[in-house]
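Entry 14: structure prediction run for Inosose dehydratase. Input pasted below.
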Amino acid sequence: MFTENKVKLAIAPIGWTNDDMPELGGDIPFEQCISEMALAGFIGCEVGHKYPREIEVLKKALDLRGLRIASAWFSAFLTSKPFQETAEAFKAHRDFLYALGAKVIVVSEQGNSIQGQMEAPLFENKPVFTEEEWSCLVDGLHRLGDLAAEKNMKIVYHHHMGTGVQTTEEIDRLMGETDPKKVSLLYDTGHLVFSGEDPLHVLNKYIHRIHHVHLKDVRMEIVHKVREGKMSFLQAVKAGVFTVPGDGAIDFQPVFAALAAAGYEGWLVVEAEQDPSVANPLEYALKARQYIRETCGL
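Run finished. Output tokens:
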């Protein structure tokens, strides 16, 4: 289905150790995490908070297991802080990823975000950007895109639950006001379905601006509980709203077919934050790997 050697399969460490809730997987060491990634059949990963920051130490640990770094999350505060604060942190993040061979940088605007607030009702308290904030976001992303280009890298914007860019309408505005040469899109199946969007509509509309993909499945019965119970994003994660492809409500076959038809090149990253004491990370990594192999041959 996919062009050979053009599409690579990775998995995120968030199924083992959660960056937003360190108590989830707090007892799981970095070495176990990456060893189980490799054991499950993945060739790449993203970066978690337990990863060593020394380039050579991290490279050696990954090389021993045949793993590469696909990308890593960067929190931007373009709507709430002076640009220079975000720029300095971004350049350090960019240089770290560049040294590890990554080609894309995951960026999400965290100004006024509620995704990290344990008690904030997700759908009721979601931020909505003002016109001034939209202007700051678009201008700031263009400038971050220029900084990424200095290293021949791209920024891929992560639409995300609990932030100012979550819905189809907000993604449309972001894509409509940003320069495709400077700002690309990260496509995340789980966040779109959780939000109530049509993931295939977004995929087909922006297929040629998508340069990074997160494969995340959703348990719809938990989505309903989140809405009815006015739960926060973190509470939803703890309750098990996300799971790996093949274990939830999303049919990934048309997603893979659309990406393949468009000639997608880059990483497909399994990303499903769960409580590892409930959902054994290796077990779920193996489940995802088997499903992807059976569904698209990768």
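Notes: The two ends are 8 Å apart (CA to CA). Will compare against the previous run tomorrow.
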